[in-house]
Sequence to fold (228 residues):
Amino acid sequence: SAVISQKPSRDICQRGTSLTIQCQVDSQVTMMFWYRQQPGQSLTLIATANQGSEATYESGFVIDKFPISRPNLTFSTLTVSNMSPEDSSIYLCSVGLSGNTIYFGEGSWLTVV
Amino acid sequence: AQSVTQPDIHITVSEGASLELRCNYSYGATPYLFWYVQSPGQGLQLLLKYFSGDTLVQGIKGFEAEFKRSQSSFNLRKPSVHWSDAAEYFCAVGADSGGYNKLIFGAGTRLAVHP
Fold:
């Protein structure tokens, strides 16, 4: 089974600043997925990160606000830029492995003040 | 485009009672379907999944779900609920554009359990 670790697990950030979230997987994967879960809401996909190419963003999410890096097959970062209180959310990364098993990280819980 | 509907936002049951959480999906082909649970302050835990084969799927913690193509449903059931089952439950479908690893989630159903 895959192990996904995310950093930071929690953070309190000042509005106007940016924060980078890291996602490390213990297996090589082609696609990594970034989700946002706003307070009391469901999960919404932000983007798909493929190694060696630019991330593919879902409707309503843009690269300037959520730049993503994918330098290799086991690592990705998501940056939340110029944060406002509306960005207070849980950010989760996810990967799919053989056997059609999808794993989620524990999430990065961000509060913007 | 794929979508998932969970019609019930909140459900309250008594401990020991049976439970059924509804999930309807929209997808043209055979869907990849999942149920996840999220306890307060916790991450997501996979309860069960369906890709093909037997339409009645057994999961962890005594949960099961039945895929009904004719009704586009994948309802989650448990014969006897425990107080520790109180949590948020999410149904999700795998989008083919992401190799079925990209999930589209329903809005979730919050389960409360009365003693």
